[in-house]
Amino acid sequence: MSELPFRSVTILGPGLLGGSIALAVRQAMPQCELRLWARREQPLQLAQSLGIEHTYTDARKACEGAELIILATPIGAFEELSRSVLPAISKTALVTDVGSVKAYVHRTTGALLTDRGRQFIGSHPMAGTEKQGLENAFAELLQNATVVLTNPHGVAKEYEARLELFWQQLGCHTYCMDPASHDRTVARISHMPHIVAGLAARNATVGDTRLADLQRLASTGYRDTTRVSSGSSAMWADILWENDVAVREILHRCVDDLHRLVTLLENQDKPGVRTWLDEAKSTRELILKISDNNPTN
């Protein structure tokens, strides 16, 4: 049996990601004391039916004595929740999160905790689906996922190593970045694609095309391209708001590129259109290239 990086883990938030982490911990680290907190009893009843015994509606009690505390609520709730449980967080415990924006989290929640003598390192598991809630959680969601770690507060390497080991024992690969670089990167490979999916979904009904025709002809291309736009609008509004600088930068570039494509079409420049499409294809293949020395999710 591998050595436990943390003997007790508290997860604050029983959504898709928090729930999947809980199920993965129960499966990979059965000897770890696992605790799950939610504001309401209903998801906790489901958690108990899934074999998660220690459930709480009192966040402070859930955090008392925990060696690792994972913030898995919407990002906008992190700071208030951390402030409310602060007295219950041991100074030797480590707090992390699973938010997809890191500079904002470190500027708010991370600063709150570290200024008061607590340990905080950011985490971002690059995993998820368009579905939400504990009812859609599954332990395998994390398998082979890349988890980005951010540590601008300079928390001791011992904690960073233990957090890396925690994610690795759940089947993840870890990758360290600074928060600003992380946010610029995810704006391009996660946040902007979500917006483009929404754009494709929103504009399919523009004009006088009959809805019945759209419904009949929509197939795998439309479904695959727009799938992520079915995600939680409240969660994604928070993400875009909290990473607005990086998102606005890449959206301006996207608008310029779309204008370029429109101009090529207006000028009847078929070779130029083909070059545009070839560039898109080669860029995708370059980013998604997998090698044995560089595992990705």
Structure description:
It is a single chain. With 297 residues, the protein is of the alpha/beta class. It folds into 2 domains: 8-177, Rossmann fold; 182-287, 6-phosphogluconate dehydrogenase C-terminal like domain (6-phosphogluconate dehydrogenase C-terminal fold), CATH 1.10.3660. Helix content is 51%, strand content 12%. It is built from 12 helices and 9 strands. The protein has helices at 16-28, 41-49, 59-63, 78-85, 103-115, 157-169, 179-203, 211-217, 220-226, 233-242, 244-266, 270-287, and strands spanning 8-12, 33-37, 54-56, 68-71, 94-97, 119-120, 122-125, 146-150, 173-176. The strands form 2 sheets. A 6-stranded parallel sheet has the order 3-2-1-4-5-6. Strands 7-8-9 form a 3-stranded mixed sheet. β4 (68-71), α4 and β5 (94-97) form a beta-alpha-beta unit. It is globular, with a radius of gyration of 21 Å. Residues 291-297 have low confidence and may be disordered.
In short:
With 297 residues, the protein is α/β, with parallel strands linked by helices. Helices cover 51% and strands 12% of the residues.
Quickly list its features:
297 residues; 6-phosphogluconate dehydrogenase C-terminal fold; Rossmann fold; 3-stranded mixed β-sheet; 6-stranded parallel β-sheet; alpha/beta; 2 domains; disordered C terminus; 12 helices
